[in-house]
Amino acid sequence: MDPTFDYIVIGAGSAGSVVASRLSEDPGSRILVLEAGPDERVIHSRAPGAFVGLFGTERVWPYASEPEPAAAGRRIHVPQGRMPGGSSSINGMIYIRGDAKDYDDWVAAGCAGWSYAEVLPYFRKAECNERLADRYHGTDGPLSVVDVPYRHPLNAAFVLAAQQCGYAFNHDFNGASQLGVGYFQVTQKNGERASTAAAYLRPALARGNILLEIEAEVARIVFEGRRAAGVTWRRHGQVRSARAARAVLLCAGTLGSPKILMQSGVGPAAHLRESGVEVVLDLPGVGRNYQDHLQVLNYYRTRRPISLTGQDKGLTALRNGLEWMLFRRGLLTSNVAEACLFADSDGDGRADLQIHSFPVFVPDHERAPPEGHGFTIGACDVRPRSRGEIRLAGPDPSTPARLFSNALSDDRDVARADSTYSGSYPAASK
User: Fold this and answer.
1) d(CA 218, CA 46)
2) pTM tops 0.90, yes or no
3) d(CA 356, CA 297)
4) What's the CA gap between 193 and 46, in Å, rounded?
5) Cα-trace Rg, the chain
6) How is domain 1-93+194-290+387-410 classified at the CATH fold level?
7) 296: closest CA among 76, 80, 79?
8) Which residues, 6 or more positions from 163, have their beta carbon under 8 angstroms from its beta carbon?
9) CA dihedral angle for residue 403, residue 404, residue 407, residue 408, rounded to 10 degrees
10) What is the pLDDT of residues 110-164, one digit of tens each?
11) Phi/psi of residue 49, nearest 5 degrees
12) How far, in Å, CA of 84 to CA of 115, rounded?
């Protein structure tokens, strides 16, 4: 007989770790958490500046889109975390909430309860900020938020240059306004990454009512009629299953969640039949309306060898590694993307461009970076209009889903990206 839990949480990532922790506050509940990846407590995840060493490993889902017609046939890479903490265990640790007006737009579109005024108390409840304590920030939550511990000279030059161009310095991108240039706050604690696994899941495991099953790749949600009654997964070649007395919570991310739903028979009926999956419920919207903040990277050479390129070798690498291991400080506490400019390209009073400064030539997946020393300016369109979709590649759960991002298919996204490098922002944003 399959074991029974009150709740089964699929995915121990940014959402799943928080959900599992919250559920475990009831000592009478038994929770099973299923995570496809291995243990996250490795040096490349714990040391903030070492996260680039995770890419290309089993701890990252190497998602990539199909060749995109509007992006000259390029495949858009969307790496996602594959371990407890999910993408919060591999990302740049930037603590950013988005613009307040974006939440109010959701309410206007019918998402009751998601206005900025309604979600702000939960942001404050989650946050333990080392510097800020006001109507926007909390100091007693489980998630540690700190100022960037290390500031590279090239990022400092970016912040200064933006101010010389007329942009105001912003000391808090999560405060009254996002607009302006400044340094991020990051999710770190004592010089280490503060992923949701570290902040929520690992402490919650001490309560004794959560079973975390790692290296567990979910095959499908088991339905009894239209009720999610359990989950089947594969671990080390063996098929396992469990029942859920109260609920199955799907927290497998933007790409993983619709894939699991569809391989479980919930999704567009015609597509499921074409993929060899028995239909449980025809839900045409599953997998649709995919959107992402495409980043456009531009490279610039430096006159002197001052970028991060080449600084991670020999005695320098040894010194940086020892400084972090012994004191939890120095270059390895940097998140690399330390500074940013939020700009308003269309004059509506809120940021639509997030322009990052990187003190190194950032690899761009299928485009090799230049040789030598330099820096990267990466612009993200944070309110894209292009929409894509996720589809199954067949009935086998181990086969990756197909992503059609449709990047740059909307001309307005192309115009916004072009404005980044032409400098054609309205004066009101400066």
Assistant:
1) 26
2) yes
3) 9
4) 5
5) 22
6) FAD/NAD(P)-binding domain (3.50.50)
7) 76
8) 169, 181
9) 180
10) 999 999 999 999 999 999 999 999 999 999 999 999 999 999 999 999 999 999 9
11) -80, 0
12) 29
